[in-house]
Design brief:
about 425 residues, mainly alpha
Length: about 425
Amino acid sequence: MNKYADRLISQETSQKKDTLWYTAGSMSSALFSMLISLAVTRILGANQAGVFAIAWAAAQLMQSVGWFSMRQFQVSDVEDQFDFRDYLSSKVLTCAAMLAGGFLYAGLYGYSAQKVGLTFLLCCFMTADVFADVFSGFFQHKSKLHLAGKSYVVRIWTSFFVIVAILLACGNLIAAFTAGFGVSALWLLGFDVPLAMKLDKVKIQFRWEQQRRLFKECFPLFLGSFLLIFIMNVSKNGINSYLSDEVQACYSIIFMPSSVINMFSMFVCVPLYGHVAVAWHQKDRGRFLKLMRNMLLYIFALTAVVLLGGYLLGIPVLSWISGLDLREYKSALMVLLAAGGLYGIIMILNYCITVMRKQKVILFVYVAAAVLVQLLSKTMIVGYGVMGAVSLYLLAMAVICLAFAAVCIYFVALEK
């Protein structure tokens, strides 16, 4: 293993190579969530798929606790305010909070014992992603991002095929994801850790003053991320409380395409973010507005294409790949796709506001939107079923989008 690690470390790297491998890793991570949901639906049926869907949504919310939005801070820490042992040690704390939070969250929302147990297991499974993220940030900081991409690709797809194989063999979610967690953990210990040790010391050591400072620096970013995922989960929790597991499974399937817009928009927009920041700080208002306009036009065009595709092919394709009869959910799918377009716009405006250094406004908007949708959840879902759930999600995205747009327009106008 030492010789193999030495060979990987010594390989020449380039921005193209880093981008290619990291994009492959990011795509693998995004596809895993969709494909594993489809696999559970096809193999175990709608009822168990609904149980899995709500547990997976809760675990994803808790995963944001595990990440604590430290990745952005870690890779931008060019002055080494914190060393790798601080970032690595912080993950022990955030993962402990993530596991405890999974129990608390599932209990507060009245999940059944089966769903509470599965939520905890999926939180355990996702701790591997949390530690993978901190190693990925380390490799990026050392200009070896391609190593993170390679690790993601192998780890994610190996665990995926192991999980699917066990589901096919015995139809047991607990056994499948326990094995998947084992595979992911072993890969991290056998690949990421040895490579990181070739580049720096890999040591868990709690320097409490450093931990306090690190969590303080990252808390605003974390809270924003947590609240946004919480808002996205309100409809799913409402379905869990007032409708059936079968409906939850159907909602989970028609929700998937809404993430496609944001996924593809990031490939075009993220490379432009640096130019947006430079234009703003150089007070080049014309270039700043041109870049923002181009990104927003791209999102509008992409949303239009996805809406057309969803209208013509969405339900037949989703019904075929999931094995569920989704014909009654065509209108709900279109609402979710429209909300997905708004989500893509929100991500761009969010970055714009961050560049302006007005992040506190972002938190205020997210808190207001979270309170609003939580208050309306029971009325809309009990009264209108799935259409109420998707309309609630669309309302949340529209409120956030309009608020962010107003903030951007206001502060751009002040720069005149």
